[in-house]
User: What shape does this take?
Amino acid sequence: MKKVFCVLLVAFFAFSGNTYATSKKSNPLPISFQIDVQNWNEVNKTLPKYSKFTVIDVESGKSFDVQRRAGNRHADVQPLTKKDTKIMKQIYDGSWSWRRKAVLILTQDRLIPASMHGMPHGAGALKNDFPGHFCIHFSGSTTHRTGKSDLSHHVMILKAAGKIDEYINALPPSQLLNVFFVSIKNDDIGLAKKMAISNQKNLKKELVKMDNIEAIQWSMPPINENKTTELSTTIPVDVSIFIKDAGPIRTKLTFTLIRTSFLSPWKVNMDPLLSTISNS
Assistant: This one.
């Protein structure tokens, strides 16, 4: 019953616009549906160690239960049961992955935007067929290794909160290009398309080839973002890609970013990346 409810919950969001908010009239369902964006200090109190809560994948609507086991700046959690582990693995198409996913945390009548990855690591204490724990990040969370906020998690948190369009539409060129690559790394082609344009005649066919990217890394030089009088700019990027059945590719690509007016959002021409994949 809970699974059906969570699917209906996400379906409700899909038709409610970016805010995900309902009217102030009484709600017949046993939850307020209000997105409650909490920073880590608040979440740390809302979801204390050993608390149990539900994770809802924004894309699929699938949900599973977890228990927080540890974590100082983000939540280290474990699926509660073997069934929950199975559902989580289905969300990741049957393979554990470091890819970030936008999720909503359901606890009592609250929905807290968050981001999870899907790779078991470290210690685990529950008998759930999950070899370790995984991490859930919230607004203001940082990683174990760097002690800094993770951009991939940050983007997914904004997506879960319904604020991703507002965010990407305000980004200057180099930051937009960086978030574009983050979306590719997370295998979130739908999000990448929000930021991109293409001259490809059969774009749908070309986008399918993006599924062949198994890993991607990139670096770009420091960019002066103060060129507010321009409608286009180019940015060189050193790219390393591992493509299924083709292996590693290292190359330098030059991306063109354009906007139609000084008040319009920037867009990335993604053709250099598409051509690299097609020719591999």
Residues 2-162 form one domain. Confidence is low (pLDDT under 50) at residues 11-31. The chain is about 30% helix and 30% strand. The radius of gyration is 20 Å.
